[in-house]
Write a structure and sequence with these properties.
Elements: E1 8-9, H1 13-18, H2 28-41, E2 46-48, H3 49-60, H4 64-78, E3 87-89, H5 90-99, H6 102-124, H7 145-150, H8 155-168, H9 170-175, E4 187-189, H10 190-193, E5 219-221, H11 222-230, E6 233-234, E7 244-248, E8 254-257, H12 259-262, E9 266-270, E10 276-283, E11 285-289, E12 295-308, E13 314-325, E14 331-335, E15 341-343, E16 349-353, H13 361-368, E17 387-388, E18 398-400, H14 427-448, H15 454-475, H16 479-490
Parallel strand pairs: 1-6, 7-9, 8-10, 9-11, 10-12, 11-12, 12-13, 13-14, 13-15, 14-16, 15-17, 16-18
Antiparallel strand pairs: 2-3, 4-5
């Protein structure tokens, strides 16, 4: 299929940042009923956050917090400049609700694909059956090694699953923006068709201008549009573009990016191992997927930052909204005007306050549109009040960091001078660092006043270094500095 100007490319970011596990009461039938009630209660085609929350609580049994998450994430994804008032286009929001069926469909398709691959493998290598070799279920634990090799490297498959979902649900997507949802083949206006820019990549012209039918008539039937789109919709072979910085497959490396390279761009970090990524800029959105033992620092994210399917990673950022899903033994240091959103099967995730201290961070946040503490004091405390989405095991997948375990993040000298204390961090954590530093200074003073001779100093230094190495090994912290030293030597 030639990808000319009339083809429609699926927006991958809507699936990366906007989709959660399907609420148990959300089916195609209940969704249509919900959409009808929302459209009936809308005023001039708009609904408020309170109208949505009332319907979501009543018809989907969502909590008020969960309904707020859906609404806020939609506003981030649908509007380049979010309206000051909590109000959205009802038909475009209806499209977003249809996308929440994705997880159910993706699980089914993944199982079918895994079953097909297993059958093919067993037929080609029958002797391996006795060894118990098989492809894992998408529902397997994220701690399973097989999952790490199968699910945690599925970026291209994720794109194909999104493509299959759009193809199989195209009629439903068109129905919810039509003039009459009760009509088996309803009409759709050019204005309503433009709502699909939530799902298809933005072009220089309204989407309706790409459809020949709209050149001669203001309304087109669902069947005609479905047939036309089905032949021209495609998923990108890869998610790189001029507006996106992709960091994929890094292995034991250090990457430093500045404002010139990343300003206002989307950042996608995927399939990286034992690496360090530092970005001192205000970026548009961040997706961190399928990484292992990776430390990521990003100064500011104007939109959504999502960590998914990661293991033993550290993520430090100031963002408008942060999502953490299906991750194991990760630490996330957060500064945000919205509480962190937890979804999927998280295990051993630690939530913590922001821990960097760059002197020009305030100006970077201003560029990114992330509010300062002075304008929104809750930002530095929201990390400790996460919202869990559609989970039956509330509070079991994460823990909150205690002040005694809090340390400042050491950043590259290229980022400029550091403040003496961390910024945008709760006072009790700042005080914990001050107490620790005061204790170290008292020990240094005591040593300096001891009037040790050269031999005593040598033995003391050996003892300190020995105990420090012992602490590094016993706490599991030895790997990071050793890897950094190797990387610096290589450079």
């Amino acid at each position: 299929m030639s990808r000319d100007s009339h083809n429609l490319q699926i927006r991958i970011d809507i699936f990366e940042h906007g989709v959660f596990s399907c609420p148990h009461r959300l089916t195609q039938a209940s969704l249509l009923s919900l959409v009808k009630s929302l459209q009936q209660s809308s005023i001039d085609g708009k609904i408020t956050a309170s109208q949505w929350a009332e319907a979501a609580i009543k018809q989907l049994s969502l909590s008020l917090q969960e309904s707020n998450v859906y609404f806020e994430i939609f506003r981030h994804l649908a509007y380049t400049r979010r309206p000051a008032q909590p109000i959205v286009d009802v038909k475009q929001f209806s499209l977003y609700l249809v996308l929440q069926l994705f997880s159910t469909t993706a699980t089914r398709l993944s199982l079918e694909n895994a079953s097909s691959l297993t059958s093919k493998f067993n037929s080609e290598y029958p002797g391996m059956n006795n060894l118990g070799t098989s492809f894992p279920s998408p529902g397997a634990s994220p701690r399973t090694k097989a999952v790490r090799g199968f699910l945690f490297t599925q970026s291209s498959s994720d794109i194909q699953l999104a493509f299959q979902f759009i193809k199989t649900h195209l009629k439903l997507l068109l129905k919810v923006i039509s003039l009459d949802m009760n009509d088996p083949n309803p009409m759709i206006t050019s204005g309503d068709f433009n709502s699909l820019n939530l799902i298809f990549s933005q072009t220089d012209v309204p989407l309706c201008k790409l459809i020949p039918y709209f050149n001669s008539k203001p309304r087109v039937s669902l069947d005609d549009l479905n047939n036309w789109i089905s032949k021209r919709v495609y998923a990108p072979a890869e998610v790189n573009s001029a507006d996106c910085l992709s960091l994929a497959g890094l292995n034991r490396g250090v990457t430093i990016k500045n404002t010139t390279e990343t300003k206002a761009r989307e950042v996608r970090i995927s399939n990286c191992d034992e690496s360090y990524i530092y970005i001192h800029a205000a970026v548009k959105q961040v997706s961190m997927q399928s990484c292992r033992e990776v430390t990521v620092y990003i100064s500011a994210v104007s939109g959504i930052a999502t960590m998914d399917k990661c293991e033993n990673c550290t993520f430090v950022t100031c963002a408008s909204l942060i999502r953490v899903g299906n991750s194991v033994d990760c630490t996330v240091h957060i500064y945000s005007p919205f509480p962190p959103v937890m979804y999927g099967d998280n295990r051993g995730v630690v939530l913590a306050p922001f821990n960097a201290n760059i002197s020009d961070l305030g100006s970077i946040l201003e560029i990114g549109g992330v509010p300062s503490v002075s304008s929104n004091p809750k930002c530095s405390h929201n990390w400790s009040a996460p919202i869990e989405m559609n989970t039956e095991n509330s509070g079991q997948g994460f823990a909150l960091m205690q002040p005694k375990d809090f340390f400042k993040l050491v950043l590259p000298n290229a980022f400029g001078s550091s403040n003496p204390s961390v910024q945008f961090t709760p006072e009790e954590f700042v005080n914990a660092i001050s107490l620790r530093e005061g204790y170290f200074e008292s020990i240094q003073t005591m040593i300096s006043k001891a009037n040790l001779n050269e031999e005593q100093e040598r033995r003391l230094h050996m003892a300190i270094q020995g105990y420090f190495r012992e602490w590094l090994v016993s706490t599991g912290n030895i790997k990071s500095p050793m890897e950094l030293v190797k990387m610096i030597d290589q450079e």
